[in-house]
Amino acid sequence: MNPNSSVVVKTLADRFDRSEVASFRRKMQEVLRRDQPRIVFDLSSVTHLDSAGIKFLLDCLSTIVRRDGELKLAALSPQAEMILEITRVGRLFEVFPAAEDAVRSFDVFLPNTHHYPEPWDLFRSVSDNQRTADLIASSAPADLDGKPTRGEAAA
Length: 155
Known about the structure:
Order of helices and strands: EEHEEHEHEHH
Structural class: alpha/beta
CATH topology of the largest domain: Transcription Regulator spoIIAA
Largest sheet: 4 strands, parallel
């Protein structure tokens, strides 16, 4: 693995408040200056998370995204999970049950699950495209009134 692309795991203090944020921010400066930083914050021991702590998480996320990196949260304590849920900040992060899971997730490629037509489908003959449209229309469900849905021929 490239040393420049290694994952940094940092465990947050039990009281992640204004005073702790200031010292933690100084410790994180070098990591945040890297190109494409990959960071996991372990929140397993966090029992107190105030607005300064939340702002720090958001500032880190913003800085890391601008550097084309990723920030993931792991092992949220019940208190941290509750605060992140109440403030709705938690939905901005990928959250994992353990730091090890978060670290492994950096090397996992998840293919896009949306089905997009293949480029060569555009070059099918008109009759092939019509057959495909007919198959789709014949398998389309009726609406709640029993009437055929759009694309389905009325009987």
